[in-house]
Amino acid sequence: MLEIKNISKTFYKGTEEENQIFDSFSLNIEENTATTILGANGCGKSTLFNIITGEIQMDSGEILLNGEKFSDLPEEKRALYIGKVNQDPSMGVCPHLDILENMSMALKKGKKFTFRKLVNKENIEPIMEKLKEIDLGLENKLRTQVKFLSGGQRQSLSLLMATFKRPQILLLDEHTAALDPKTSKIVMEKTKSLIKKEKITTLMITHNLKNALEYSDRIIMLEKGKIVLDIKPQDINEEELREIYNSKISEEEKLRLVS
Ligand SMILES: Nc1ncnc2c1ncn2[C@@H]1O[C@H](COP(=O)(O)OP(=O)(O)O)[C@@H](O)[C@H]1O
Ligand SMILES: [Mg+2]
User: Fold this and answer.
1) Is the CB of 44 under 6 A from ligand 1?
2) pLDDT tens digits along 206-222
3) Among 9, 20, 46, 47, which is best to mutate for testing ligand 1, by the most ligand atoms less than 8 A from CB?
4) Is this model's pTM higher than 0.90 or not?
5) 172 has which bridge partners?
6) 207 in helix, strand or coil?
7) Could you give the C-alpha distances from 246 to 209, 240, 242, 257, in angstroms and in order?
């Protein structure tokens, strides 16, 4: 479904800071699967997402989506096929706009619109229905500015916005990392039910091994631009996964790990 073929990327090529991230890296993602990507800080996980979205240009290689050459499309065209949620709760939303305006924007993704005519009356009902799905009572707060929501509410809203117009691929870049464990669990459950219901092919970056085991069909570990582990959760237990993971990350990172 998503084919990443022989991609290479080096930042600051030919300078002292030259930083090779990928050298002919390939990865195939099957339709309607949830894949977790693990790996030490700085190993290139977010760069991979940014190459898929077109935010970062690769040096060579190609990306195909449903057999078509996706990497030839400009970033704004690719955005029509991709939903993305980042770690930072303010990135997927406009904090100064209210919930209704944010959801209206998500609905207008890919279409031209003016802020004056952002909210169409006929969209209010479907927006409320959609908000009810995440069961946080946000449908009763349509006129609340998003900056007043909690981190968990914002990440849930981001997720809803990223999937409102069903994307072909959903990219989750540590989307629960900034949340406390309890809220993180709630957002992960909402993520799971959304992607199962809409059958969205998902790639998720996390440092949380429990989440990786519980919420994905496939776990991949990256190290120095290579896949060093590619396994199904049912074929490994948490201790084994932690042992492999700990052997790939620094002592400093281990201390920060949430179990
Ligand atoms: N836009 C960029 N310009 C230059 N260097 C970058 C850029 N994005 C990421 N890098 C570098 O690439 C490496 C991988 O970063 P990243 O993909 O963010 O890692 P992570 O696996 O933690 O998400 C890091 O050394 C980072 O500094
Ligand atoms: Mg990252």
Assistant:
1) yes
2) 999 999 999 999 999 99
3) 47
4) yes
5) 85, 204
6) coil
7) 11, 10, 6, 10
